[in-house]
Amino acid sequence: MDKQKQVQFLAILLLSIAGVFIVDQNIKSLFVDGYRYYGECIDLVLVYNKGVAFSMFAFLDGYLKYIQILFVLGVFGYVVYLQKLCYAFGAGLILGGAISNIYDRFIHGGVVDMVYWHCGFDFAVFNFADVMIDVGVVWLLVFNFKPHLCKN
């Protein structure tokens, strides 16, 4: 990869990480400061998740954040190693969301979640970072299974 594409790759990756982190932390601060909303299908309420998705691995307690840091460093290293321009944005979404959730574990003792869907069925409480992680995963899957779309 030439120098210009390397700079583009790193800019997209780092800006998407920073963007997700900043937006997510600002949304979470509203709920930590007391904002609540109760609707017909969605409640916006403060929940501290001590585990990962659906509170799995909560038994790992304080160790979980360090395991997640190792995971994030591994993903970051792998994506930088690949240096595929089409992966930069998706990976940035995933890493930005993960870093924001890990930050919560250090500051609040658990991940700040707030969106509770309960229309027709009860769903897990989640946050903006979780949604960005899901969008990032879909982004990477599309380019992985449709490599012709990735003109790198």
Could you please describe the fold and organization of this structure?
The chain is of the alpha+beta class and 152 residues long. The protein has one domain. The protein contains four helices and four strands. It has helices at 3-32, 63-82, 85-108, 128-145, and strands at 37-38, 42-49, 111-117, 125-126. A four-stranded antiparallel beta sheet has the order 1-2-3-4. The chain is globular and about 50 Å long. The termini are close together.
Q: For the CA atoms, what is the radius of gyration? A: 17 Å
Q: Could you estimate the helical fraction of the residues in percent?
A: 55-70%
The overall number of domains is 1
Ends: how far apart?
A: 8 Å
Helices and strands, in order, run as HEEHHEEH
Q: Note the total helix count.
A: 4
Strand coverage percent: 5-15%
Shape field: globular
Q: Structural class of the helices, strands and pairings?
A: alpha+beta
Number of strands: 4
Low-confidence stretches: none
Q: Please tell me the overall pLDDT.
A: 91
Keyword list:
alpha+beta; 152 residues; four-stranded antiparallel sheet
Short account of what is shown:
This protein has helices spanning 3-32, 63-82, 85-108, 128-145, and strands at residues 37-38, 42-49, 111-117, 125-126. It has 152 residues and is an alpha+beta fold. A 4-stranded antiparallel beta sheet has the order 1-2-3-4.
